[in-house]
Amino acid sequence: MSVPRRRHADRVSASATFIGAGSTFTGNIVCEGDLVVAGRVNGDGEIRGTLTLSEGGTWEGKIQAANAIVAGEVNGTLAISEKLEIRRSARIRGAVTARMIAVAQGALIDGEMSVTGDTPVLSYEEKRKDG
Asked: How far apart are the two ends of the chain, measured CA to CA in Å?
């Protein structure tokens, strides 16, 4: 029996797709599982698992994902069907939609934000040092 974990980052699957720091992916991407981006993506993405955009990572384009953790920079739209966690280092320029949204103090969002579920946007002070 597996032990449930609190953070989405703890649930990233062992078979995630990675775009490493220093790498650039240009084009549209469809990912059946989880996607971790520490580099740069120029294009639209459809991620059926969890997208983790690390601090220092950038994405230019539209993003659709089941869940997302954003610590990097997004220039485009984010359409998340479930939970979106926006870390303090995040810089988002564009519309944001998710069923649940948690925003760390210090994050920058320049665009409309809408919640599709019953829970209001949660603002929190990030205490973790891992960003």
From this structure: 29
Q: Are 72 and 57 in contact (CB under 8 A)?
A: yes
Mean pLDDT, rounded, for 107-117: 93
Q: Residue 3's pLDDT is what?
A: 46
**How distant, in Å, are the alpha carbons of 10, 16, 30, 102, 113 from that of 35?**
14, 6, 10, 20, 23
Quick one: which of 84, 86, 82, 85 has its CA closest to 117?
A: 82
Mean pLDDT of 100-109: 95
Specify whether the CB–CB gap between 93 and 110 falls below 8 A: yes
Domain boundaries, the chain: 11-115
pTM confidence score: 0.85
